[in-house]
Write a structure and sequence with these properties.
Elements (H helix, E strand, L loop, with lengths): L6 H52 L31 E5 L4 E9 L4 E6 L5 H9 L5 E4 L8
Antiparallel strand pairs: 1-2, 2-3, 3-4
């Protein structure tokens, strides 16, 4: 006599696997979203640190944002920022979701970098800004022009 699974046993196994999958998939999606927010937080902190370091070293902000940071910032139309950073604000965005969350404004006259909340109500921006502590606000920067 051959031993094999019956059709009912196979159906029960499939049902149990379906129930397990329905519990695991939402957890995996939430984990992915959390990782995306943490990645965004690291990116904005890196951008701010690089811009502050540039100003500290040179005593001024450069017009060309890409000389100060390797992080991609955008303009208000969500295009990669290529304007004059001393006169035009740059924005931090999650381009995959087309969400602008933060506005960065530089002022050479008083040596400040301002990071403002411009969240659009998306869960990504809300989570990102809620996790920020010292990055949000006005950063008063010194500068000694050590490389000039």
């Amino acid at each position: 006599m051959k031993r094999a699974f019956t059709m009912i046993e196979l159906v029960f196994v499939i049902v149990i696997l379906g129930i397990l999958a329905s519990m695991v998939i939402p957890k995996m999606a939430a984990t992915r979203d959390d990782a995306e927010v943490v990645s965004g937080l690291q990116r904005i902190n890196t951008a701010v640190a690089e811009i502050v370091t540039y100003y500290t070293a040179h005593g001024r902000f450069d017009d060309n944002l890409s000389k100060m940071t390797g992080e991609v910032l955008v303009d208000s139309a969500k295009n990669i920022f290529v304007g004059n950073f001393n006169t035009t604000p740059a924005y931090f965005a999650n381009l995959a979701r087309s969400k602008i969350c933060l506005k960065l404004t530089a002022s050479d006259s008083n040596g400040t970098l301002t990071v403002e909340d411009v969240r659009d109500g998306s869960s990504y921006c809300n989570a990102l800004i809620d996790m920020m502590d010292t990055t949000l606000g006005v950063h008063k920067i010194g500068g000694s022009s050590i490389y000039n």
